[in-house]
Amino acid sequence: MAMNNKALNAYRNVHVSSAVPYADGIQLIQMMFDGLVDALSQAEGEVERKSIAEKCRVINRATSIIHGLKDSLDFEKGTDLARNLDDLYDYMNRRLFFANLHNDVNAIREVKGLANEVRTAWKLLPSLLKDQPVAIAS
């Protein structure tokens, strides 16, 4: 439940959707990745249109979502996975800083590709968990 509360608070902080009160932890993370990919797509367009103010706004939104994803990591339960994701999120933030500073659409695309890879894994998670045997206490 702690992960759900952390994810819910992180999600509320980045204002991605009004469906949050009805979502479980996995759905919240999926929604955050959807919002991240959407913001990165917008950032690509803003760089190509040379719209500096809008580029900064959507890159800041993407960075906020990444911070929300970092805040939802459970280092007690996830240990290695949580550390690896934390490192990945740090890398993504550094690349977005570079993209923002240099108007580098390729850096945005790199982060978007990474986000899509992780998002795909999160979308598979519910079906993988559903197939796991459940221990019944007697």
Task: Give the arrangement of secondary structure elements.
Layout: H1 2-14, H2 25-48, H3 52-71, H4 75-102, H5 105-130
CATH topology: Four Helix Bundle (Hemerythrin (Met), subunit A)
**Structural class from helices and strands?**
mainly alpha
* pLDDT averaged residue by residue: 83
Euclidean distance between termini CA atoms? 24 Å
Description:
By secondary structure, the protein is mostly helical. It has a single domain (2-120), classed as Four Helix Bundle (Hemerythrin (Met), subunit A) (Up-down Bundle), CATH 1.20.120. 80% of the residues lie in helices and 0% in strands. It contains 5 helices and no strands. The protein has helices at 2-14, 25-48, 52-71, 75-102, 105-130. α1 runs parallel beside α2 (25-48), α2 (25-48) packs antiparallel against α3 (52-71) and α2 runs antiparallel to α5.
